[in-house]
Amino acid sequence: MTEDKLLKRQLKKAGISSFDSVDEEAFDKLLQYIEQSYRDNSETRRIMEHSLDIASQEMREVVDDLEKAHREVEKKDKLMFQQSRFAQMGEMISMIAHQWRQPLNMISVTTASIQFDVMLDKIENEKLIASMESIASYSQHLSDTIDDFRNFFRPAKEMQRTSYCEEVKSVLNIIEDSIAAKNIEIIKELNCKSEFNVYSNELKHVIINLIKNSEDVLVENNIENPYIKIRTYKQDKTRILEISDNGGGISPENIEKIFDPYFSTKIKKSGTGLGLYMSKIIIEEHCGGQLEVANNSDGAVFKVILSH
């Protein structure tokens, strides 16, 4: 149909009303029109192909730029994550030093007691055995602390099957004594024991960041009867970990920026300002969940939300 219309149009231009009235001059005109039409179509196709080549090249350059920008963002995030990790490592070493103080003191007291009994020649087998068992128990506690610390900073290559309860327990094994030494009460309401697959060390990193954030606020604001509440529960098809405190909350002008990199509300700028930013990256990009913050009547409430 389209070819018929095109032919009729060319015939009309050449002054031919029908094939019965074709003379040599009209036929030559028809051939000229057809040839010109072919050249016009060829030129149009050439221009279109050239335009497509240019567009394709520009598209490739845009894709290359996007891939380069993506690599730069990944490189920056990795560097920021390492920076946050090293800062947290320093804090945890300080916590472990506090964690070790009591068992080391008890080992020292127990060995001094044994030494004193030996000097007085009053050593009793039952007391000696009990003392040695105590020393072994304290030493095991020291060893467990080192294992927790080493496992925390070991790169996770595969997801592990775990639960909020296990992760919270592992974190508190390292930092609970340090927090308790500041007279901060830790309230645990761990009601979600269901397991899920996650990068365990990264989730621990987030939990420590959130707990330490609460601790810093409570200490800086000199809060009376300070507490940190850790809750886990199920809601619809999600598992939720809540970490809250009675530190007074986050001001309206800061709450929208609280997850920005290098943003900090701390009076003493001893941190990197990366803890909450990296926590959000971990939960949302690595765990497929959400990290939210809001204020309640006592203070800030951070929620880690993971889907079933």
From TrEMBL:
<dbReference type="GO" id="GO:0000155">
    <property type="term" value="F:phosphorelay sensor kinase activity"/>
</dbReference>
<keyword id="KW-0418">Kinase</keyword>
<keyword id="KW-0808">Transferase</keyword>
<dbReference type="InterPro" id="IPR036890">
    <property type="entry name" value="HATPase_C_sf"/>
</dbReference>
<feature type="domain" description="Histidine kinase">
    <location>
        <begin position="95"/>
        <end position="308"/>
    </location>
</feature>
<keyword id="KW-0597">Phosphoprotein</keyword>
<dbReference type="InterPro" id="IPR004358">
    <property type="entry name" value="Sig_transdc_His_kin-like_C"/>
</dbReference>
<dbReference type="Pfam" id="PF02518">
    <property type="entry name" value="HATPase_c"/>
</dbReference>
<dbReference type="InterPro" id="IPR003594">
    <property type="entry name" value="HATPase_dom"/>
</dbReference>
<dbReference type="GO" id="GO:0005524">
    <property type="term" value="F:ATP binding"/>
</dbReference>
<dbReference type="InterPro" id="IPR005467">
    <property type="entry name" value="His_kinase_dom"/>
</dbReference>
<keyword id="KW-0902">Two-component regulatory system</keyword>
<protein>
    <recommendedName>
        <fullName>histidine kinase</fullName>
        <ecNumber>2.7.13.3</ecNumber>
    </recommendedName>
</protein>
<dbReference type="InterPro" id="IPR003661">
    <property type="entry name" value="HisK_dim/P_dom"/>
</dbReference>
<keyword id="KW-0547">Nucleotide-binding</keyword>
<keyword id="KW-0067">ATP-binding</keyword>
<dbReference type="InterPro" id="IPR036097">
    <property type="entry name" value="HisK_dim/P_sf"/>
</dbReference>
